[in-house]
Amino acid sequence: SFDPSATYSSRCTLYRTLGRMRGFICVLLSLAALNAVLVAAKRVHPQPKVSINVPTSWTRLADQEPDHTTKLSFVIALKQRNLQELESRFSRISNPMHPDYRMYMTTGQIADLIAPAEENILRVLMWLQSNNIIDYEVARTRDLIRFKTDALKAEQLLNVDFQRFKNIYTGATTVRAVDRYSVPEDVAEYIELISGVHGFRRADIKPVRTADKISKPKADAPLAGVNPAVIRKTFNVPDGLQGKSSSNLQAIASFLQQYVSPQDLALFQKKNSLPSQRIAKIVGPNDASNPGMEAQLDIEYITALAPLVPTWVVSFGDLHENQEPFLEWAQFLNSQPDGQVPLVNSVSYGDDEDTIDYDWASRVDVEFQKLGVRGISVLFASGDSGVGCNKAGNRHVPTWPASSRYITAVGGITTGFSSKELVGDTISSGGFSNFWPVPEWQQAAVNNYLSLNASLLPPRKFFNASSRATPDVAAFSEDVDVIINSSTVPIGGTSCACPMFAGMISLINDGLLQANKKPLGFLNPLFYQLATSKPSVFIDIVHGSNTHGKCPGFKALPGWDPVTGNGALNFQNFQAAVMSM
Rounded to two decimals, what is the model's pTM? Predict the structure, then answer.
């Protein structure tokens, strides 16, 4: 396996940590003098609006207070430069109508554009060392610092009181502060946020829904539900099409101690007459004897739809006491050298948007933009709760990161009364963000849906019609056959749809790379433009709805809709359109 900490520079002395910092070895301000200044300095809150509410599903363990034996991990997100320019380049590079389309940037160019000034990084490192924190690492992208320390030192550093909490439903524990952290004013101007202090992960959420029936596969029996052959036939993927480019890579993300079994993958490939293909690299922890349903379906279906494309499993499986996975995962990808990073990444995890801290989500969005300007596609399952519904039953609850404007959200479809009819799955999460405005590339499609179908919409009090809308596309999300622990399990969820759609994009990339063309990168502007100019690249889904609980849902109708997006991919038509560009 591969240690994710390798994405950071190795631990070293203060001056050797930043190998590119020329001339700072002669810094005049000693650590002792700096410490005196910082102790006396006024303290400020880098995140004055951060939520510190304790959800009702978590209870404090008063008899298990964290102490010097409690080891905690944190990430300091440093303030970056030129973010408007980064977003402008992201927009130009991903717009098929712009001359800069697919003119991707290198990691060095990105760092030179947005990384903090070297003296700012040094100032923060000196603050850590002055507080006797020496276990720190600077990201290769030069805009994040990760450090570890014990709870007592962290309390002193951040001026907070850490407490241990337990989830009353799952038994999961976490260490969190319930007061706002602060840092000396002298370093606050260089820090955007510190991750790992606040926020409670909803550990009770499951990534997929499993059917009750589990059957043992017979030695010579094909799988019975939705399988790779069904998917290829439905979405017009030629039989036998395989990856051939030596430059192509794809990956699945694996969180929450979800592991993969190479043995089950091999059995799945054999049962579906797929080429034998091993996992190219496992990043992070993996217990092959304890496979997770989510990880197993992801690896089986991304490889089934993109046979022989080298595939990574990027696993941040440990349930760290106080660390969210998305920022660390995205930063890992951005730390990979050019030409050695997965070009397509499938992620089947998410959470209710209203549980996410806005500043933290905005910082993760910057990581998504950095991936996009490098030519890397990121796809997220849209979620399995339809429109979502708050407890009062009077407001939709969107999911995140599916609602991010810098990724592709994949919704769900299933078969209707006729096996030839495709309908929007009722679980397919879709609707409108409460955080982010509608992006330009989506504006026309959203306006068209809202204006032409006004009488069919839920009451406007349920959603924000001027916001980013999801999903963007869709694939199968019910009765998908997965092999786990040598058994066939029919499962459902948009986490089935995401890896199969991602695999098809990898196959498209493979053809582009073989033709000495560049990969697709951020997909959405291309999708929405082709949906208008060449609608045959999608299979339009015009039936289904995504009502959830007391909240009325949207209807799948001609064109883009908040149940199935632009629809399912018509692979060969899409491939022809892309190859001709």
Answer: 0.88
